[in-house]
Amino acid sequence: MKLLSTKATCNSHGQDSSYFLGWQEYEKNPYDQVMNPEGIIQMGLAENQLSFDLLESWLDKNPDVGGFKSAGKSIFRELALFQDYHGLPAFKNALVDFMAEIRGNTVTFDPDHIVLTAGSTSANETLIFCLAEQGDAFLIPTPYYPAFDRDLKWRTGVEIVPIPCNSSNNFQITESALQQACEEAKKRNLRVKGVLVTNPSNPLGTTLSRDELNLLIDFINEKNIHLISDEIYSGTVFSSPYFISVMEILKQRNYHKDSHPDVWDRVHVVYSLSKDLGLPGFRVGAIYSENDTVTAAATKMSSFGLISSQTQYLLSALLGDKKFTKKYISKNKKRLKRRQSLLVSGLQKAGINCLQSNAGLFCWVDMRHLLQTDTFEAEMELWKKIVYEVRLNISPGSSFHCSEPGWFRVCFANLSQDTLNLAIKRLRSFVAESFPAAAHHHQSRESSKTRSLSKWVFGLSSRVREQEER
Amino acid sequence: MAIEIEQPCVELSNVAVSETHGEDSPYFAGWKAYDENPYDELTNPSGVIQMGLAENQVSFDMVEKYLEQHPEASTWGKGAPGWFRENALFQDYHGLKSFRTAMASFMQQIRGGRAKFDPDRVVLTAGATAANELLTFILANPGDALLVPTPYYPGFDRDLCWRTGVKIIPIHCDSSNNFQITPKALEAAYQQAVSTYTKVRAVLITNPSNPLGATIQRSVLEDILEFVTRKNIHLVSDEIYSGSAFSADEFVSVAEILEARDYKDAERVHIVYSLSKDLGLPGFRVGTIYSYNDRVVTTARRMSSFTLISSQTQHLLATMLSDEEFTENYIKTNRERLRKRYEMIIDGLTSSGIECLKGNAGLFCWMNLSPLLEKPTREGELELWNPILHEVRLNISPGSSCHCSEPGWFRVCFANMSEQTLEVALDRIRNFMHERASVNRSLFSNR
């Protein structure tokens, strides 16, 4: 019998999850202002479409770059032949400068410690290949980006164990949650090799606090394990508290270098231009690590996913233009902030709150009060109504492995302002019609009524979850 | 006084610390010697000439001319609505339809229209390196084996085995029949797997062959197809050099045979292709898997998320490869130029008393230096390679790095340099052979 491998036949590619099913519905009936104004509005795609005009105008002013010319000379041949997995030096230099600039130059990156990969999808998988294998696990705080189930587990055979976070403290990572994760790993007979965090968080849209970062460093030191910090959204932080990279914390803790000299060997950063620059099609990702063994292995592995030299060259010129990058970073943030405010205030008028956020291309929206029952089943029912009746493709929290039903991720940067306003309008009508009480009930997290409701609701939901067994 | 505390070494994975990336083999040691002392016509005329790099540099002018005449391929047009936005956002793992269509049509043209390719069966990957690894992940589990005829491209040890945990079992070929694959050799490799309780999942061939520089004959392909069907395993045909066959008629693709049979049993066959050799664009990372198996296509597409081709590059190539006037002329001219280079190197080597395997494709020839070996062993081969690398200063690839079972063969590339440089290399070889001959003569006369 001609078999395919276990990898080919398993479901770890994750394409059957609701995250992808919503997209399929959108594909069947996509909104278009002119052609299909009743169609489904896509709010499940974390793309940054707000700042293309800045890129386009730069391209207009620099036509030679696309044409393989440097200082009037053709460099086509050199680029066409360039497949060195160490990457185009000019591009690496420009990239590390850009990464430093995003971090307000509080940290600098050494281009010799950067590994280029075809997108952060490839970067994350490559790092896991380097740090772990079958029988091992990485701990990831929930809620997390659904595709991690594919990216980190599928071909590597490594497992993910959740660090359960909840709304009682705005989904922050706690020591007890970390311990809980360790215990679960032990029960499942898995060796914990590290922790992976996304900072700023997808789907929360928040940056990790200094306390959380210090807690994580203490934790990985205690367990002698790795920390991967996926900082793909680092350039989307639009308000305070500002972005603190794990690299900054390590720099600060240099003071403790004598007792933990090897911590630099266990902390790795992932980056990409897909979100900050809105260039997911160009496949530009990177791993940054001070661990020479990791960068050596990852560099060789990058052979399986190199960035097109044509693209490296274009971006070396774009990111090498410091006047441009400064202007871009600043304008991009302002536009993201405005969009987020638009969505947040629009939802508030419908009696819907969002987790307070300062980054990302989405809001983490609280619709718990709109659930029939405090269950994931009810979340699915609400989601289906929103997709089919309200005609908005938003992402249900369960697809992010959220431990509490009722939360949804809603993207705001992949559509025009008009479309966003329409989406808000549709949602407001829906809430007004289906939940007249909720529309007038302005919930505040400070109200004791809500606090006691949360506790009761939380207690109910965990009982129901055990029955459901996701 | 410093207090030294022993730090536990934090573990990396076995994959990370293994040697399976293969970078410590002689194949790479030669490159290091070149890197340290590279030949340059003007600035370093006595440096090491790189003849270990299978690159195609003979046809750039045609691509450059096309790009100059068609700037829309490398730009996105001016003004709004620009095509830039759409292209920059495009990360669909199905790939640009226009590019897949152009790729299918290009593959068809290379095979003289004797095989048709369906754009919906084209899966895009960042290079053939990624395509081969991906197929291995899909067709085999860790511990399983692929059968690969020797000599083979050294990179396969990494591409097929490193992260996949899959083994390569060699199908031994030798000069007694010009290194052709025989049913006996296929069966012997299969039995070797059986004897070690290893499951064989596929046969992987490169056609035209690297390093032999020769196409696989139709009858041999038919034997291989019969074998894989009988054993109920897959066949992967890496046809990365298909456009580099010196004459259009000499290359027979497994695709043609399948089409002639109405695609009977085709779901076990998968073709790998890339633009790195035929178009000389290894930097752009353009590979593809063409499979007749729907499940493989679907799975490969999903897995290609880890190795997508830049949409900027897809756009460029979609424009260029859908221009049939360009592609027809390119394919024809490229073949002719490669044939001329091949004839030049063969003439040069023959006049130095060196024989090569009769080749008809690729960017290299398979040179026989076994008469020069002190000992007919791998060590003897490396002992001969050393002076060639360090004294004659030519980086050629020893057959042992390609897992050749017969010592004394070397792969010599001819398309990655100018004609002048090739002349210099041939001169050096001529001198080397003359010196050897006179040393032998004096030894002989002293006996």
UniProtKB/TrEMBL annotation, chain A:
Cofactor(s) this protein requires: pyridoxal 5'-phosphate
Coiled-coil segments: none
Presence of the UniProt keyword S-adenosyl-L-methionine in the record: yes
All residue ranges annotated as the Aminotransferase class I/classII large domain in the record: 41-427
Recorded GO MF terms: 1-aminocyclopropane-1-carboxylate synthase activity; pyridoxal phosphate binding; transaminase activity
Catalytic activity: S-adenosyl-L-methionine = 1-aminocyclopropane-1-carboxylate + S-methyl-5'-thioadenosine + H(+)
UniProt key word S-adenosyl-L-methionine: yes
Functional pathway: Alkene biosynthesis; ethylene biosynthesis via S-adenosyl-L-methionine; ethylene from S-adenosyl-L-methionine: step 1/2
PANTHER family cross-referenced by the UniProt entry: 1-AMINOCYCLOPROPANE-1-CARBOXYLATE SYNTHASE 9, BIFUNCTIONAL ASPARTATE AMINOTRANSFERASE AND GLUTAMATE/ASPARTATE-PREPHENATE AMINOTRANSFERASE-RELATED
The protein, known as: 1-aminocyclopropane-1-carboxylate synthase
Pfam family for this entry, one: Aminotran_1_2
TrEMBL record, chain B:
UniProt keyword annotations, A-Z: Ethylene biosynthesis, Fruit ripening, Pyridoxal phosphate, S-adenosyl-L-methionine
Catalytic activity: S-adenosyl-L-methionine = 1-aminocyclopropane-1-carboxylate + S-methyl-5'-thioadenosine + H(+)
Name this polypeptide is given: 1-aminocyclopropane-1-carboxylate synthase
UniProt superkingdom: Eukaryota
PROSITE patterns in the cross-refs: AA_TRANSFER_CLASS_1
Family matches, as PANTHER family: AMINOTRANSFERASE CLASS I_CLASSII DOMAIN-CONTAINING PROTEIN, BIFUNCTIONAL ASPARTATE AMINOTRANSFERASE AND GLUTAMATE/ASPARTATE-PREPHENATE AMINOTRANSFERASE-RELATED
Family membership: Belongs to the class-I pyridoxal-phosphate-dependent aminotransferase family.
The keyword S-adenosyl-L-methionine is annotated on this UniProt entry: yes
EC number(s) per entry: 4.4.1.14
Single GO molecular function: transaminase activity
BP-aspect Gene Ontology terms: ethylene biosynthetic process; fruit ripening
UniProt-listed SUPFAM superfamilies: PLP-dependent transferases (SSF53383)
CDD domains: AAT_like
One Pfam family named in its UniProt record: Aminotran_1_2
Species lineage: Eukaryota, Viridiplantae, Streptophyta, Embryophyta, Tracheophyta
Functional pathway: Alkene biosynthesis; ethylene biosynthesis via S-adenosyl-L-methionine; ethylene from S-adenosyl-L-methionine: step 1/2
